[in-house]
């Protein structure tokens, strides 16, 4: 339908012209009858005048209020004749289907470089295709033995010409006919393996072979990552002729011809020749080829041979020197012996590269501990045996096999728990190595120390980091791998040899504490594995289960205190009343401990309680006694609060002290003294932001201590006494240090201590009573000196 803008309508109305001329740029307009239903007319007018009436239209209401002339705009609706024609009377226009077109060279470049970020994988992809060709031949030969009569050996051979930069890979598989060359190599993303598997599924009498690897039809084109020209010579037992397919990296076409050179004829299979690019000719090094095969295709089920230089030692005769020859000629009676030396004879021959059978495909009951340990040392270049291993197979929604290990020591040091990007997990897809470069896709950061291999049949061979991050299969695998890792660690903790878990905890304890912070879903698995020192076990760490078993019958919570060492924790004033009651307290001496315990919140329905924070309830409250003490010391607390001002939030009667006069506790929801100290160390010198995060401080006094009783007496006798004020200040500073806080002005604190020492010492040793005693001691000392000066001569044997 024809629509006009608000500006065009306004300009037309201003012109007052009642005529309307249709230009050739517009379609022909027909005038509809005004006898349209009210609803349609309202809809039409609503569409036409939405810009003039703010989208409002009322049925059966005239447009006279708009003060417009009855012309083509206001009176009628105009529609295109094509739209007004009866659709039932005319046939619909024909629809033409057009195929997409693409510039093949650019499309292939996009496909290859988006799927493969590492050039090394080209050899892995070609070997995987060769393995599929051998698998197909082996399967088809069961029903048709004639297919494998030309060449009995099923193997893959790789020849590298370093001088010319050429790599040749030959397999004795099923090969391809001319039409299969066009279908498989001439059509991008056309997979012969996928067709073969579909045919197996369609055949009710045969089951699919899950060992076939490539199913996406793009693995072959990874050859163009390193090659500027690729030649494929193939011979199928279904055909009498051998055909050659050839294409270049930047070309949008390929050629197929029949092989006519007798020297290049193969009995069966496929030979791929890669003419490497100038910058990638380093891949033609035989040693590098062997290394890539061992890394990526070590566990392919068919033998892979590489062309390698070998040598053997033999003895050869050495010609005598002229001087020695004359000497030997003179001595005719002495029989000469031939002189020889050992030399290394060099030659080239085929060498089997993948001679190791994948251990994870074997039954775990048939594998010995020594075999597991040997596989661990060889795969991860370790010299020590692992602490534990777990070999399992997962079936059901996702199927994969895996062997996991707990290393004996932390490779990056005990303090490194941040590096989650490791090469500890090797991912295989149908025995073909995919990657070991993970960033938390298979294991969370706190379990990044776990080593092992994972072999899945459900992941695509050309898996990338993006695919791993978004794959539902990987998420399921991760969940099950984490569960198995916890089971393995729990087995170490329950071992009869306690030293094994002590060794594990010494190396990886911080990792598990980090897991308490980052992984709430696995708190129930992590908590039993934690170990801490305690007030009843200062030398040996205990588990939370052991703590709960040792709890008193009336104890309702798990008590802990955070500090920088066991010594400072056990001497903290917060423990005094708990020690009297023989209540065990956990010592959190690592920087990460406090945050980890706070993340757990509870264990076996027992809450974790920090004894350095306010409102500590030990379950022995006596309301009558508390009321009496509050009545006696309540005003003293207010007096002390007035003196300390904003340094503390309040002054309260303490229920946790027995021998100390006072203590400074943190607010219930604020930082503890230990956390405040740690955050200051992490602030890189900028402490301005820490002021907003500090918790409220509560000054608690012990009403049974003599110092507090003296302060209370000072309040009732002379609240403005300067000595009492200085005593309160010094008492606060002493509580600040003993509670684990850092004084803001250490020099001022030192001055107060020296001042109090001066007063105490001057009264003790400078008194009048001490002067006579000092004079008497001086006289006695002088008399002893005078007597020592008188020496009488002694006669011995008549001589003085």
Automatic annotation (TrEMBL):
The keyword Phosphoprotein does not apply. Residues 316-338 are annotated as: Disordered. InterPro entries: HATPase_C_sf (IPR036890), Heat_shock_protein_90_CS (IPR019805), HSP90_C (IPR037196), Hsp90_fam (IPR001404), Hsp90_N (IPR020575), Ribosomal_Su5_D2-typ_SF (IPR020568). It comes from the Eukaryota. GO terms for molecular function: ATP binding. Keywords: ATP-binding, Chaperone, Nucleotide-binding, Stress response, Transit peptide. Transmembrane segments: none annotated. ATP binds at residues 125, 129, 171, 176, 191-192, 215-220, 270, 465. Residues 323-335 have a biased composition (Basic and acidic residues). GO terms for cellular component: cytoplasm. Belongs to the heat shock protein 90 family. This is Histidine kinase/HSP90-like ATPase domain-containing protein. It comes from Eruca vesicaria subsp. sativa.
